[in-house]
Amino acid sequence: MMIALEHVALTYQSPDGEIEALRDVSFEMEEGEFVSIVGPSGCGKSTLLSLISGLEPPTSGQILVDGNPVTAPSSRVGLMPQRDQLFEWRTIWGNVTLGLELRGERDRAAYDRARELLEQYGLGAFAQKRPSQLSGGMRQRCALIRTMATQPRILLLDEPFSALDYQTRLSVSADIHAIIRQEHKTALLVTHDISEAISLSDRVVVLSRRPAVVKSIHDLGALRDLAPMERRDAPAFRTFFNSIWKELDKNA
Amino acid sequence: MPDSTPSPRRLAYLRAKRREKGAIRSLQVFLLIFFLMLWEVSARLGWIDAFIVSCPSRVAATVTGLYQSGDLWLHLWTSCAETAAGFVLGTLSGTLIAVLLWWSTFLSRVLDPYLVVLNALPKTALGPIFIVWIGAGTASIVAMTLAISLIVTILNMLVGFLSTDEQKLRLLRSMGASRGQILRKLVLPANFPALFNTLRVNVGLSWVGVIMGEFLVSKAGLGYLIVYGSQVFNMDLVMASVLVLAAAAVVMYQIVLWLEKFLKKYLGVIA
């Protein structure tokens, strides 16, 4: 198993009292799998990603990556935050190599690899441009390359498309999906958009309201082999959508 | 747009814009000349007492006199140097302290009430204390300037530092960044706009500090000239000094604006 969550629970302490964010979350992910987490807003989806990326420890339960418990941020896991979060004061190249820079990477090969990714995904000519000179879709791509530059095997995507308008969102998510597949990354996407989850992933994990538990896990089966846009036209899409929608609705 | 010749409507729009700009400029110049002439004529015709309010020709003569005797440069230089010293010192130490407070939330919470009191206190009240402690000289004037700009700098910069985007912080931490790296790679560059706002405010505050300081204790400087002029009832000298001061303050403010533009362009800092 690439990732295993075993009875993960998290309780926050705040001056006003204890907040139980996650009660009991368990699921596993295989290498190369694309899994989405959907759930009502404020159910702790983003918190779950923080735990998996090692930013904070769970109160109980454990998270294993490659069989090792997660204790601190590691280069095996790359986080793609909400919105692209590109640094406006850096060039595209400066943004893409941020992770390598922080790590104090001296190996030329790592930078060559980042350069290759930029070229391969059509941003080579923009290396010296500023983020403000890029379209929304290109910015998102740049953010993905920034995350992949440090060569993590697992990508955690935290509602990365939430700031885009609907039209852009469809094409950008298909674009990002294709890149992740091509690079053979294991990806965990958090979203509140059910159709986005169904069009991109192999499996969908449904979380309950806070305190979150896993309500159900849907294997998308035949849809797995289709491209995101094709899935939206498949009959099975409706079926999955309805059953996930009902589960979330029951909850609310 | 392949069509390179602007449409007649576009041309008319541009013409109207140009005309409006021209009208504003000429009115501005006219107002200045009108005011100066009114001042001069009223003084000459005896509507106002030139001994009390001076007049443009006498101010001009005074400035020329100061220039010829070499005193103008001495006083101008003294004040500008003190302002620049206070400005640089205030901005640097203020930013440094803000960094320390950002680094240690505990320290910042401990010092919070002191900052509030110091911020509320009219800093000019500290002038006599500085004179007793530091002595009647340039050091006291710079201390005065520092007192006026330091607290504002700390508070402004700290607010900026603390409002750094949570998601960007999360991104850096997930990449394993240390606190020092977060400061250098994110918090400082993200607050360049805040820094320049502070610089602009500080130029003005530094002049206030210097003139205040020179009023209290000085042997040279524009503030000294103003106080000296009023004591010997030489209003020409007072008016001339105020005008030179206004010019110097504008020039310094422009230098900061220019510096900001330069840095934005060549360091790629975008507001």
In the CATH hierarchy, what is the class of the largest domain in chain B?
A: Mainly Alpha
CATH superfamily of the largest domain in chain A: P-loop containing nucleotide triphosphate hydrolases
Number of helices of chain A: 9
CATH superfamily of the largest domain in chain B: MetI-like
CATH architecture of the largest domain in chain B: Orthogonal Bundle
Per DSSP E runs of 2 or more residues, the count of β-strands of chain A stands at 10
Task: Please name the CATH topology of the largest domain in chain B.
Answer: MetI-like fold
Radius of gyration of chain A, taken over Cα atoms and rounded to an integer in Å: 18 Å
Pick out the low-confidence regions of chain A. Answer: none
How many domains make up the 3D coordinates of chain B? 2
Mean pLDDT across every amino acid position of chain A: 88
Q: State the assembly state of the protein chains.
A: heterodimer
Percent range for β-strand residues of chain B: under 5%
Number of domains of chain A: 2
The CATH architecture term of the largest domain in chain A is 3-Layer(aba) Sandwich
| Largest interface in this structure | A-B, 28 and 21 residues
Strand order of the largest sheet of chain A: 5-4-1-2-10-9-3-8-7-6
| Major pleated sheet of chain A | 10 strands, mixed
Structural class of chain A: alpha/beta
Query: Regarding CATH, which class of the largest domain in chain A?
Result: Alpha Beta
Explain what the structure shows.
The complex is a heterodimer of chains A (252) and B (271). By secondary structure, chain A is an alpha/beta fold. Chain A folds into two domains: 3-76 and 152-251, P-loop containing nucleotide triphosphate hydrolases (Rossmann fold); 86-151, no CATH class. Chain A has nine helices and ten strands. Chain A has helices spanning 45-52, 92-96, 98-103, 108-120, 136-148, 166-182, 194-200, 228-233, 235-251, and strands at residues 3-14, 17-29, 34-38, 60-65, 68-69, 77-80, 154-158, 186-191, 203-207, 212-219. The model of chain A has no long low-confidence stretch (mean pLDDT 88). Chain B is mainly α and 271 residues long. Chain B has two domains: 8-48; 59-266, MetI-like (MetI-like fold). Chain B is 83% helix and 0% strand. Chain B has twelve helices and no strands. In chain B, helix 4 (71-103) packs parallel to helix 7 (138-162) and helix 10 (192-216) runs antiparallel to helix 12. The longest helix of chain B is centred in the N-terminal third of the chain and has 37 residues, at 8-44. Chain B is flat.
